[in-house]
Amino acid sequence: MNKLLIEILTGLNKRSQYLAPSFVDCVDQSDESIEICQNYVCPNHTFKCSYGGCIHDEIVCDGIKDCIDGKDEAKDLCTALNCKNDDCRKYTCKNDEFSCENTGQCIPMNKVCDGTHQCQDATDEKSDICKNRSCSKDYFRCAYGGCVPSSSQCNLRADCYDWSDEDDDTCGNSLPEGACNLPLVEPGTWYNVGNCERCRPGSTVPELTRLEFNCYGNTSIEGASIAYCQGSRWLPSLPTCLSASSTKKCPIVNSPGAIQYCEIKQGVKAGLTSCNHPASIGTRISLKCHHFYERERGSSHITCLHDGTWSQIPLSCRPTCGIRTSALATMIIRGWKPSPKEDIPWHATLFSYENGLWNFFCGGTLITEKIVLTAGHCIWKTSPDTIKVLLDSNSSNFTNQNKETQIRDIDRIELHGSYQDYEGNYGSDLALLIFKNPALINPRVLPACIDWSSRYDVTQRIGEVGFIAGMGVTENDTFSSNLRIVSAQIISEDVCRKKEMPDFRKYLTYTSFCAGWANGTAVCNGDSGGGFLLQRPNTNIWEVHGIVSLSPRRLGGFLCDPNYYTVFTKIGKRSNEKSRR
After folding, report:
1. Nearest 10 degrees: CA dihedral of 126, 129, 133, 139?
2. Residues 179, 183, 187, CA angle at the centre, nearest 5°?
3. Cα 281 from Cα 307, distance rounded (Å)
4. pTM greater than 0.70 (yes/no)
5. Same domain, 451 and 564
6. Whole domain around residue 542: which residue ranges?
7. Are residues 291 and 150 part of one domain?
8. Element (H, E) at 568
9. Residue burial 527-563, b: 16+ Cβ < 10 Å; e: rest
10. Residues 141, 282: one domain?
């Protein structure tokens, strides 16, 4: 697939490093087997599971088995750690244990002032406890007094909870020109990072990054609520909250496609809580994918840590792609109108604003919740605010839609970098329409899949039959009032060149392929941008392999000639890699 599409789908934001504790990524769990993990050396701020995996200290004994072997929730380990309020008085800490001030928890003495909070109330890392402690010879002293191994200093990870082991002056780091490190904040203060939702304090961000500060509870902000990175400095000065007793919280988790259940694990407010507000320390979020979504990455359980960050990357879900709930009927000239039971859930209909009306002009294919793939010539030199995309639409009349039709405004348009319209013979005729708001995924609105691996490259599937949907010109030389479907057979380049008129052959390039019947059945004007769909071999998954681009005109006219093959733009990694060479 072209670089533009890959970058948009995967995201360009720089992400900070997260620990992925004892999290199974392989279906067969082989990535968390004892054979692989038993000799793995866990970082000092983590807990080692019996089989060798590592989890963050703060999520030990929180009621959820993060180690796949369950060691982090073993009864002999967690009885005292999980006590609440007066129950904690039943337990007396041993001589080699530290008693947390407010909860009565007992933690190993060697965990006190080690750079990471183990006490639920964070009293094991208080400055007034740690500042009078001395560090061993091979240890680095954090600014607040804690001690971490000298080897952990300047390792691009915060081992001191105040990040002082990664201080730029200490480490001799030189920031990129104009860049800044995300700042620590005073208790009770938190901020959102523009274009970098998963960044943590200490992460390097580019110049002009925007921070939006807020305070918790009844406290008020002192200073400007907005700061920008300018010349490697945050300007204006970073604000604070008037109440110094406030505690840090974790930001609201944005996980489209996932259902969230939030639970406060400690204190007088313990129990289920709303997920629509910043989370207090120790809050646990359980996530699972909605219907019509599948797991993409991340963890289904995350915990709010004492530095105001989440213990793991949260679960993200992507719409299930390429699934139809009915069989395929075999625009659209000499095509067929799909029956009510035959859905084309990824087809998008494009309308443009002209003379006070919204008029149908092209088709497209939904490939994610927020992106429609279409032809570059459809939107060449077009403003996003003059386009609307309709999903689950069967009519070319903008005002004659069913109640389930979804209408989406366009935030921006991304053309393929090599597309030059007629000056480039319409090569790389691809564009992306990015919605302002995501589509609502349901049985009638689902994205088509893309063959990212190019395993089933369209050029290797000569003779196979795919289908296209659209509302273009029909055999009556008028736009169709309803969605229609047509099938088309993939044709070899040699056969296509011999069939096409000489002045049309210049449009056959390595970014295109031919399909059709050359017998009066074809796509036509208005069908541009629609997707050419093929079924993945031996599955019920449908993938978009081409975009309707060009077809020869009839002599002396502007309408297509259905007795010739149609040229489609390839949707494939290999073909678009060639265009960048």
Report:
1. -20
2. 170
3. 9
4. no
5. yes
6. 347-578
7. no
8. strand 566-570
9. bbbbbbbbbeeeeebbbbbbbbbbbbeeeeeeebbbb
10. no
